[in-house]
Amino acid sequence: MTKSVRISIDAMGGDHGPGVLIPGAALALERHPEMRFLIFGEEKHVVPVLDAHPALKAASEFRHADVSVKMDEKPSQALRIGRYKSSMWRAIQAVREGEADACVSAGNTGALMAMSMFCLKTMSQVERPAIAAIWPTVRGESIVLDVGASIGADASHYVNLSVLGAAMARIVFDMERPTVGLLNVGREEIKGIEAVKEAGRTLREADLPNLDYRGFVEGDDIGRGTVDVVVTEGFTGNIALKTAEGTAKQIGEYLRGAMSRTWRAKLGYLLAKPAFDALRAKMDPSRANGGVFLGLEGVVIKSHGGADAKGFAAAVDIGYDMAHHNLMRTIRDMLDETPIATSA
């Protein structure tokens, strides 16, 4: 019998609130009927939407929360006002109390990270948590981290990020020894800042059993899928993520403009429509929606604030996978095998 996975949902997060998040959770339930939900939010907004999805309602417990964290609220303000009584805090707290196996929110990223760190704490071997994103590549998918949790890193943080990313890759990609690369300005060992070079030396010499360190990778290697896990610090990672999203939209606009310019172009589009549909599906951001907060004493998933129901369902799916395959145990086991992480 498949083990039930319990997911807590911050139903008030994101740009669209329960009107999108509840249908998204319902879609995820169709794919994983054994899931159970704790849903937190304002009763007058959540319950009418939940009533329209009887299967989800039957698999859920709703709990009213008086406060909702606004998307533009500062993390310090969100902590001060929303601690203990907001839908976001209570969804995270459910993980801490063992009532849920993972929390999923589309809310304010800074507030979610601040509350997660305050409520769950970071793992003893980890100095700072990271946000890991699943990145579409020409070879399939890779994991990139950190994409925005914190700025700057020393060598030990880069090593920890490598271990955290590899642990996630083992679950997401079902592989024993994921390949890992450190993002750098060149592949040569003499290039880059000292922290990256020192982390590279440490990973190479450690020869860890659960990850295959492949050296430095450059920006164009991310889209190529050169390695399974690309490691960088949050400032660079977030810029790379936003640049990739912007480039995808730019290409889409170019294609739409070119295909509608002349009647021959329109005819060519009709003939090539199956290929364009496949390209659109490959570049669909909802397929890879859901950043995993790694390094915390619990599983928290951040959905894109503007995600539609299909996108939020993808984030819930990631939460299910991380909990079902016991991400926390995998991370602890791998950190115990990492000398620099243990000494830290």
What's the short story on this structure?
The chain has 344 residues and is an alpha/beta fold. The chain folds into 2 domains: 1-125 and 295-325, 3-Layer(aba) Sandwich (Isopropylmalate Dehydrogenase); 127-287, 3-Layer(aba) Sandwich (Isopropylmalate Dehydrogenase).
Structure description:
It is a single chain. By secondary structure, this protein is of the alpha/beta class. The protein has 2 domains: 1-125 and 295-325, Isopropylmalate Dehydrogenase; 127-287, Isopropylmalate Dehydrogenase (3-Layer(aba) Sandwich), CATH 3.40.718.10. The chain is 50% helix and 16% strand. The protein has an 11-stranded mixed sheet, sandwiched between helices. Helix 8 links the parallel strand 7 and strand 8.
Annotation, overall tally of beta strands? 11
Strand content: 15-25%
Which CATH first-tier class of the largest domain would you pick? Alpha Beta
Question: How much helical structure, as a percent, in the residues?
Answer: 40-55%
Largest sheet: 11 strands, mixed
Structural class: alpha/beta
What is the overall pLDDT average?
A: 87
Principal-axis shape equals globular
Task: Examine the secondary-structure arrangement and name the CATH architecture of the largest domain.
Answer: 3-Layer(aba) Sandwich
Terminal-residue CA separation? 40 Å
Q: What gyration radius follows from the Cα positions, in whole Å?
A: 21 Å
